[in-house]
């Protein structure tokens, strides 16, 4: 057990959650013996976890339990699920119970990565997770993937602006390899399944016009989202929500397998992107594009454009047919438009 009081408290929270992760009842007396503290100490830990937003049920004469089993993040399991190439590229892994933002944690860790090396952070809870355009990203305890990957490019690669599209391809490839069929992409960085949002990507970059470029890639994936949170997210983002469990049911992989597989595909894609840019992925994007040839509305600042989506250009910009004229969009909010 760590000697630092804060680290000791964090370790005890992790151990208690691990004991409760099977979803069954555990008496306070047995939990106290396992953690070698008093029953009052168990109550204090449970209270602190509840303050973080983790639901822990307690029933007299039965004990404590989580509402359902949870597959906690585990560094060894993530590493085991990753490819040998990803393991070789990985310089540091942080598995956290709670953090404000995994992207911010990676960005502020000041790890000096060499080109082609990666840093990974996953968190059970983040209280200031961010999506695109300043939106919050909500992921209740044990319900989804909150992961960020730091990566160093020797220099800004060709078509750097299209990086989020290539990252999306990596994530979809990983999910499909695990058995999640029909997952696609919505420009510029949404993971989709049957018209509903499965996850999202947020990329932040630090670097000069020439020389090394450090990126932090945030990936959120819904795995087992409670119905109440689905409604909340739908209201916030004006989009219906899906999750991996809805797609795969009893075949749903554990979160460590998802993280390890996504990391593996990401390392492969980032390596190729560094050398070839988006040109290496343009054909794959076309196959995964859920907007292609559909009526869309593009909102860019105060301007709204109606047209038909025609895929993306080699630089990752969205192509929209507006009355026979192709217009290009490097940014904007896109939604499918109903046509009477």
Kindly describe this structure:
The protein is built from 11 helices and 14 strands. The chain is an alpha+beta fold. It folds into 3 domains: 5-65, Arc Repressor Mutant, subunit A; 75-286, BirA Bifunctional Protein, domain 2, CATH 3.30.930.10; 291-336, SH3 type barrels (Roll). The strands form 3 sheets. It has a 7-stranded mixed β-sheet, sandwiched between helices. A 5-stranded antiparallel β-sheet has the order 13-12-11-10-14. The chain has a two-stranded antiparallel sheet with strand order 1-2. α7 (163-177) packs across α10. It is globular.
Please tag this protein with its features.
single chain, 340 residues, alpha+beta, Arc Repressor Mutant, subunit A, BirA Bifunctional Protein, domain 2, SH3 type barrels, 3 domains, 7-stranded mixed β-sheet, 5-stranded antiparallel β-sheet
SSE layout and pairing:
Layout: H1 5-20, H2 28-35, H3 39-51, E1 57-59, E2 63-65, H4 75-81, H5 84-89, E3 90-99, H6 102-108, E4 118-126, E5 144-153, H7 163-177, E6 183-186, E7 190-193, E8 196-207, E9 213-222, H8 227-237, H9 244-248, H10 255-276, H11 282-288, E10 295-300, E11 303-312, E12 318-322, E13 325-329, E14 333-336
Parallel strand pairs: 3-4
Antiparallel strand pairs: 1-2, 4-5, 5-9, 6-7, 7-8, 8-9, 10-11, 10-14, 11-12, 12-13
Helix pairs in contact: 1-3, 2-3, 4-10, 7-10
């Amino acid at each position: 057990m760590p000697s630092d009081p804060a680290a000791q408290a964090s370790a005890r929270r992790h151990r208690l959650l691990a004991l409760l992760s099977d979803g069954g009842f555990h008496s306070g007396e047995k939990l106290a013996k396992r953690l070698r503290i008093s029953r009052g100490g168990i109550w204090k830990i449970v209270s602190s976890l509840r303050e973080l937003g983790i639901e822990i049920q307690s029933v007299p004469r039965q004990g404590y339990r989580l509402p359902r089993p949870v597959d906690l993040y585990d560094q060894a399991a993530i590493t085991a699920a990753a490819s040998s190439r990803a393991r070789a590229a990985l310089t540091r892994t942080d598995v956290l119970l709670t953090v404000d933002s995994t992207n911010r944690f990676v960005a502020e860790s000041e790890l000096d990565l060499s080109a082609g090396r990666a840093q990974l952070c996953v968190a059970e809870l983040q209280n200031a997770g961010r999506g695109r355009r300043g939106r919050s990203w909500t992921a209740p305890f044990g319900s989804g993937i909150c992961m960020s990957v730091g990566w160093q490019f020797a220099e800004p690669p060709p078509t750097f602006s299209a990086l989020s599209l290539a990252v999306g391809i990596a994530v979809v490839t990983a999910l499909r390899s695990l058995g999640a069929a029909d997952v696609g992409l919505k420009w510029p960085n949404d993971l989709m399944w049957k018209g509903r949002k499965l996850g999202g990507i947020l990329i932040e970059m630090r670097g000069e016009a020439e020389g090394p470029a450090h990126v932090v890639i945030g990936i959120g994936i819904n795995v087992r989202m409670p119905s109440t949170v689905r409604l909340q997210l739908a209201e916030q983002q004006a989009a219906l929500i899906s999750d991996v469990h809805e797609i795969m049911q009893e075949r749903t992989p554990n979160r460590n397998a998802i993280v390890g597989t996504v990391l593996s595909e990401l390392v492969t894609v980032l390596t190729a992107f560094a050398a070839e840019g988006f040109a290496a992925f343009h054909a794959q994007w076309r196959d995964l594009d859920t907007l292609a040839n559909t009526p869309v509305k593009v909102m860019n600042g105060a301007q709204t454009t109606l047209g038909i989506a025609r895929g993306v250009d080699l630089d990752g910009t969205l192509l929209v047919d507006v009355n026979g004229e192709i217009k290009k969009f490097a940014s904007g909010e896109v939604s499918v438009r109903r046509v009477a």
